[in-house]
Amino acid sequence: MSYHKLRLTTDHVELFEPHADHQFQEFDNNLIQYGPHCYAGFWNDELIFMGGFVKDDPCWQFWGVYSEAFKPIHARHIMRECRREFKQVPCDRAHHLVYMDDVTGHMLAKFMGAELEGVMKKYYNGLDYAIYAMVK
Predict the structure, then answer these.
(1) Are 130 and 118 in contact (CB under 8 A)?
(2) Helices (H), the chain
(3) Which DSSP category does 90 fall into?
(4) How far apart are CA 87 and CA 103, in angstroms?
(5) Deepest of 21, 28, 89, 132, by most Cβ within 10 A of its Cβ?
(6) Hey, how many other C-beta atoms are within 10 angstroms of the C-beta on 136?
């Protein structure tokens, strides 16, 4: 069993089946962002994660979505890559939003070393989100 990552392309998005946790937001390709710090994560050639760091003027944001094939064992590999990538991003801080009921999303944010900064009530589609931040 092995994990590897590739720079994110539109071809990866077409292969992606979002995890049921993402269904609340009517997942579509408009949520996917591209850039030099975005990647697709594979476990045994199966796409399990897409994410990365993008500039959202004036700050940087981390985004990520995981697939139905994602398992807790994959978190260690994904988070190691996220922390490695964050070192390459030309910023001191990046934030990340997590739907309040997305248990796996909160776990991944914490594994990345992000700290909870607060809760944004009715942020998107009337749903509450938590905001996490990674600071160098």
Answers:
(1) yes
(2) 10-15, 75-88, 103-111
(3) S
(4) 26
(5) 132
(6) 9
State how far the Cα of 91 lies from the Cα of 46, in Å rounded to an integer: 31
Residues 16 and 50: beta-carbon distance below 8 Å = yes
pTM of the model: 0.76
Scan for tokens 């070393």, then name that residue: 113
Give pLDDT tens digits along the chain (136 positions). Answer: 687 778 777 777 666 665 555 544 444 444 566 778 888 888 888 888 888 898 888 889 888 878 888 887 888 888 888 888 899 999 999 999 998 988 888 988 887 789 999 999 999 888 899 999 999 9
Angstrom distance (rounded) from CA 6 to CA 40: 5
Q: In what order do the strands lie in the sheet with 38-43?
A: 3-7, 38-43, 46-56, 59-66, 93-99, 127-135, 115-124
Q: Are 17 and 38 in contact (CB under 8 A)?
A: no
